[in-house]
Specification:
The chain is built from two helices and nine strands, in the order αββββββαβββ. By secondary structure, the chain is mostly beta strands. The strands form two sheets. The chain has a five-stranded mixed beta sheet with strand order 1-9-8-5-6, with no helix packed on it. The longest helix is centred in the first third of the chain and has 15 residues. It is globular.
Length: 189
Amino acid sequence: MRAFPAAALAVVCTVAMASCARSAPPGVTVETQSAEPSPTTTWKSDAPVTLQVGSPTDLSQTRGLAKAVVTVESITENATCPTGALKPKNGQFVAVQLSATRLDTSEGFGMAVYDWGALDGNGKPVAGNAGLVTGLCLTDGSALKLAWSASGRAAGTILIDAPKTVTAITATNSMVTPSVTVTLAMPAR
């Protein structure tokens, strides 16, 4: 058996140890990843997004939001739970009817599973328990679904447990860091 030359072994050990080191070897520049988006990022805004009833809004350029054109078809206060399974704990149910058209190849309309809530008269966030309320109250197929249709569209209703003094509806995508919130403006009363 032939012996491995000591000099070659020293080079191999040095390279292996350098690859495990926390700092770069002398003369090597390491690029760090910035928290700022690069110019090639597909989204370009972290600005707050407010949706108005009846106005289609392209959300695809905002970080963490669905790559879709979304329309708030209606917001109805004092909505009922058709099944009667629940009573509002915060004051009233608010029904939000949405429609959307997909702009990418995603398999689901993310807004269907956002954390939906409301802002009360003092601007304080109130959890809307939309998943539970919608699931127990809308069993007729009218609830907003996660899946896109074959034509790349989604539509349906979300029921939110909101205070009587609701000033806005919120939808937060907490699956991104930091989370991103969309505000739905209440229609004129």
